[in-house]
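Re: tryptophanyl-5'AMP structure - here you go.
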Amino acid sequence: METQEKKRIYSAMQPSGMITLGNFLGALNNWNQMQEEYDCIFCVANMHAITVRQDPAELRKRCRDLITQFIAVGLDPEKNIIYYQSHVPAHAQLGWILDCYTYMGELSRMTQFKDKSAKHADNINAGLFTYPSLMAADILLYQTDLVPVGEDQRQHLEITRDIGERFNGLYGETFRIPEAYIGKVGARVMALQDPTKKMSKSDENKNNTIAILDDPAVIMNKVKRAVTDSENEVRFAEEKPGISNLLSIYSGVTGKTIAEAEKEFAGVGYGAFKNAVGEAVVAKLEPIQKNFKDLQNNKDYLDAIIKEGAQKAERIANRTLDKVQKKIGFPLTIR
Ligand code: TYM
């Protein structure tokens, strides 16, 4: 197995909508904080995105915007590998191989598959079903130690480990078996208008989500309209999903603990609390939005990052793919 000094982190995001505060607090913000300590690879998962219908021009734009947001948030393209999934054919190649080591029964148990097939009943395609084995390929190709994700991806991490262990059991040590890294705060940001379901970038009701590129006035307005409860106590509790969600958001963007936030807002009404949450979100996002605008004007710089990212990712991915192909009896690829 390849030796590395630092532990490797791998994670990805689908270009299936504007990045939300959920994606930011559950994933991107953690990636940003981990980049010094780990050897990191971050991917725009556009192959996963076509498991639901996408408008081609829109998809292309979203991919570009997503990679730009990765950098705008602070991911350093000099230190990390940042790339498009579809630029590295090894994902599709290992994805197919792993399909042959993944059982229908396992895939049928995936809650994301159940949710998405209910939502897109007219398009329950085979890719939607085998999504987890492609995701396993993403992670296993890079001999990953840790995968920083939100709570909703835990099940996909478990199946990745099962598939990797199954393959290792059959053919000897081939893949490093990854662990999920799920942060304590912000691992499950909820929809603002319905705090019993998760905030999702593909939600049609835009009042449910805050996009990290939303205008400050829009953000303030969405937070003000967030559903709460009929009490007037700012307290984190299961029976208060709206207030708890806003407390988590506040804690996520300020770095304060929930207990500190509860103390800060003791005796404060919901209106003033929401105002403070909105302002804290805006303050966190404003510099990111400025970076985004600056980067958008820097076409050559972005193109170079995308090209270099693909080349670097491909070198690592192909090493694992060659090893796998050899083990299962495919003739050596002539490169
Ligand atoms: P995606 O694109 O749905 O979400 C990207 C990341 O954001 C997290 N997330 C959330 N965290 C907290 N609260 C929320 N409401 C919320 N919504 C989303 C997700 O957990 C994720 O970390 N299958 C993946 C993409 C993927 C991937 C991979 C991830 C493809 N290959 C390999 C890790 C490793 C997905 O659909 O994420």
